[in-house]
Amino acid sequence: MKAPSDTTLVVTPEHHETALSWLSVLHDQPTVAEQTRFSRWLKADPAHAQAYAEAQVMWEMTEAPAAKLAGEDAVALEALLKAMDAPRPAGRSRQPLMRWSAGLAIAACLVLMVSVGLGVQPQRWIDDFGADYVSAPGQVRSVMLADGSRVTLDADSAVAVHFTPGERHVELRRGAAFFQVTHTGEPFVVEGGKGETRVLGTQFEVRLQPGGAQVTVLSGRVGVRAGVDEPQQILTAGQRVSYDRTHTRDPSVVDSESQLAWRQGWLNYYRTPLAQVIDDLSRYYPGRIVVLNERLAAKTVSGSFPSKDPLAVLAALKSVVGFEQYEALGRVIVIR
User: Which UniProt keyword terms apply here (predicted)?
Assistant: First the structure.
């Protein structure tokens, strides 16, 4: 949230971070000395009062979703530490991070705002920990694999590659990837969302979704199944299918060239829920975009948007759909 244009106040990210820190202290039974120090800080600069007022508004709006994110981040951190087998200090045992998560209920909006402002996103850490190729938010990256196949990573995506004699295996750990597979006579399998896509043709995309994944074929054929014991669905050019952990849905016909235009810097939608559009757009924004209104999230959107300028896309969506938008630390956008 920005100060009105008719004021000369300059509220910096450091002001926001300090304000959020004080907000956390004051929500946790502050001592008389802490209240006195806060009062002195608040009166020292008008920008401090402005930053604190903005922090209070953001706290009220984001407490519930931030508490959820706190729990998710705690689980991700715990998994990351296990994966790294972090050593414990002598004579001390590491406390479960779920207990730490409960403590964050008091400072839930700090998880959403301060941690994002500092780039602290544990789930991204654990995704990247075992990945061979990673793309940053806003970056579309193309890499050549050892067999001559090419993988194009959508923004904020990660893959792990494991080639062995007899099978070429790729794990999509985050985001989405487009594959152009070179035929070598060995199977090429992409694992994502607990299911797999087995290459019978050449060009296709795998995109992770909550609980599963979505596969879109540009040319050739692929076989898709939700798990090793599930039946396989055969897709051809211009078809798409989604699966979760239990079953694969029936294929649908799509304009695959349009749906895969993110490779050329465009995001195309036809009657798509705003929540999905925001999720996609978040890959191109170096922070988090949170939609608080469920009815707003369900509204459908049609259009073609340039992925390189997510703020301009949000402005266009705001003019068409109509919503309130708030910013903090230059890294968090709240829509309601």
Answer: Membrane, Transmembrane, Transmembrane helix
